[in-house]
């Protein structure tokens, strides 16, 4: 994608520089623009430049966090527990837009918030989210991603909640598939709450499931992540003082505490989005994890808690490894399908994404690096840190590439 800058009278010979848009930089002259885009003259040039310069703001609206990105990879996010603060959604969207792009030409969105228990049905949740987007961005064209692989306008999206619900993984896979246009690949996106394991063939997702329950049943959605996952959802017991100690069925600690204790994430004293409301520091995380075996940090040594944390991490990796094996089998079957462009029996590439990409990498190591032909970290492919907001960036890029003609004035040409 090249973005052309306008620098004066449109028949000038002046050379202008393109902005860094989607990772590509190019310098062109206005005469070149006119030569290869003959429609770009007069009023039509204004329209051409408007679509080339189109500012798209993408949102990934989840049940606990709202993530935003523009098509250039500038990102922002905010914590918003949908189950208690769903009436504040429009305000949160407007606030994020103010940080990135106060006056977007178009807004693109994908969501998982419809599953929040403040909504009786997913259809109710989808409608609420779309209403909030329209409230935050009046008179701005809005497009919603669907698992059918296309965008819908708001009025159509409300009528198709099953295609709108939980579609963020599909947007990410559709965009990330551009990095692997030929052959087989797996995209592993580890977020704060869940992990998506998406089979890709010749650049397109080929998941067996399209909704959450189908994906859960096929290993493509694993309810484990890098932050919000309760420890008791990962293990039911741990080795402790030469015996097995059952874990309390309480949300005393999460994987954020485990990762911090294990040295896989830094302390964040400004972050109090924890189970007890105390900051995310090592001392507090140790105490929270001790509560999982009905103790406090005065009853258990730091070394013992370190060992417990490492065991929990090992079990989470095994959980992901088991799911990877299931999805790899799905991908192998799809690759042998004679209707597919790729029927080659080659090892797939693997792409890592999300705030917990390091967890995914460890799971692949457990499975065996030899299972994959190539390993790519999506964050390393861009100069800006998009990984934590990858789905929002993906939907912004897809919208910019696919929907900019929606801004054209039909009467121009």
Compute the number of helices.
Answer: 14
Question: How many strand units?
Answer: 16
Q: Structural class, from secondary structure content?
A: alpha/beta
Tell me the name of the CATH class of the domain at 56-169 and 387-407: Alpha Beta
Which assembly state applies to the chains in this document? single chain
CATH superfamily of the domain at 56-169 and 387-407: ATPase, nucleotide binding domain
In the CATH hierarchy, the architecture of the domain at 56-169 and 387-407 is 2-Layer Sandwich
Instruction: Round the Cα radius of gyration to an integer and report it.
Output: 23 Å
Helix content: 25-40%
Strand order, largest beta sheet: 5-4-3-6-7-8
User: What's the story with the biggest beta sheet?
Assistant: 6 strands, mixed
Topology overview:
Layout lengths: L14 E3 L9 E3 H7 L5 H11 L3 E6 L3 E6 L4 E5 L2 H4 L3 H12 L5 E6 L10 H15 L5 E4 L5 E2 L1 H6 L1 H4 L3 H9 L7 E7 L4 E7 L2 E2 L6 H6 L3 E2 L14 E4 L2 E4 L8 H7 L20 H10 L10 H34 L13 E5 L3 H11 L6 E4 L12 H14 L10
Helix pairs in contact: 4-5, 8-14, 10-11, 10-12, 12-13
Please describe what this structure looks like.
The chain is of the alpha/beta class and 413 residues long. Among the domains are: 15-53, no CATH class; 56-169 and 387-407, Nucleotidyltransferase, domain 5; 181-226 and 316-381, ATPase, nucleotide binding domain (Nucleotidyltransferase, domain 5, 2-Layer Sandwich), CATH 3.30.420. The chain is 36% helix and 17% strand. It contains 14 helices and 16 strands. The protein has helices at residues 30-36, 42-52, 82-85, 89-100, 122-136, 154-159, 161-164, 168-176, 212-217, 255-261, 282-291, 302-335, 357-367, 390-403, and strands at 15-17, 27-29, 56-61, 65-70, 75-79, 106-111, 142-145, 151-152, 184-190, 195-201, 204-205, 221-222, 237-240, 243-246, 349-353, 374-377. Strands 5-4-3-6-7-8 form a 6-stranded mixed sheet, sandwiched between helices. Helix 5 links the parallel strand 6 and strand 7 (142-145). It is globular and about 70 Å long. The two termini are 22 Å apart.
């Amino acid at each position: 994608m090249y973005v052309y800058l306008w620098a004066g009278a449109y028949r000038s010979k002046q050379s202008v520089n393109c902005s860094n848009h989607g990772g590509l930089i190019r310098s062109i002259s206005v005469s070149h623009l006119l030569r290869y885009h003959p429609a770009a003259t007069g009023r039509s040039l204004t329209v051409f430049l408007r679509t080339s310069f189109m500012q798209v703001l993408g949102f990934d609206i989840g049940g606990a966090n709202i993530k935003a990105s523009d098509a250039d990879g500038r990102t922002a996010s905010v914590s918003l527990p949908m189950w208690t603060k769903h009436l504040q959604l429009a305000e949160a969207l407007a606030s994020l837009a103010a940080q990135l792009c106060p006056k977007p030409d178009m807004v693109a969105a994908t969501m998982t918030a419809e599953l929040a228990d403040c909504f009786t049905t997913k259809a109710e949740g989808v409608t609420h989210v779309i209403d909030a987007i329209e409230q935050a961005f009046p008179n701005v064209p809005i497009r919603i991603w669907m698992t059918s692989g296309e965008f819908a306008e708001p009025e159509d999206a409300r009528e198709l909640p099953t295609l709108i619900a939980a579609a963020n993984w599909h947007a990410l896979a559709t965009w990330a598939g551009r990095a692997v246009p030929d052959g087989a690949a797996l995209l592993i996106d580890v977020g704060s709450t869940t992990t998506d394991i998406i089979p890709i063939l010749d650049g397109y997702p080929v998941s067996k499931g399209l909704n959450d329950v189908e994906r859960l049943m096929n290993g493509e959605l694993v309810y484990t992540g890098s932050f919000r996952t309760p420890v008791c959802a990962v293990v039911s017991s741990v080795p402790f003082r030469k015996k097995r100690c059952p874990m309390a069925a309480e949300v005393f600690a999460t994987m954020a505490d485990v990762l911090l204790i294990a040295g896989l994430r830094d302390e964040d004293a400004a972050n109090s989005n924890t189970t007890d409301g105390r900051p995310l520091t090592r001392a507090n995380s140790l105490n929270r994890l001790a509560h999982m075996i009905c103790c406090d940090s005065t009853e258990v040594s730091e070394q013992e808690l370190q060992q417990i944390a490492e065991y929990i991490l090992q079990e989470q990796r095994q959980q992901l490894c088991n799911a990877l094996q299931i999805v790899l089998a799905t991908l192998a079957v799809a690759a042998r399908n004679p209707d597919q462009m790729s029927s080659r029996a080659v090892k797939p590439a693997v792409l890592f994404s999300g705030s917990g990409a390091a967890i995914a990498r460890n799971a692949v190591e457990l499975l065996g690096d030899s299972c994959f032909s190539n390993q790519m970290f999506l964050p390393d492919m861009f100069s800006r840190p998009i990984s934590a907001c990858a789905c929002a960036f993906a939907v912004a890029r897809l919208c910019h590439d696919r929907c900019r003609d929606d801004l054209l004035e039909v009467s121009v040409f």
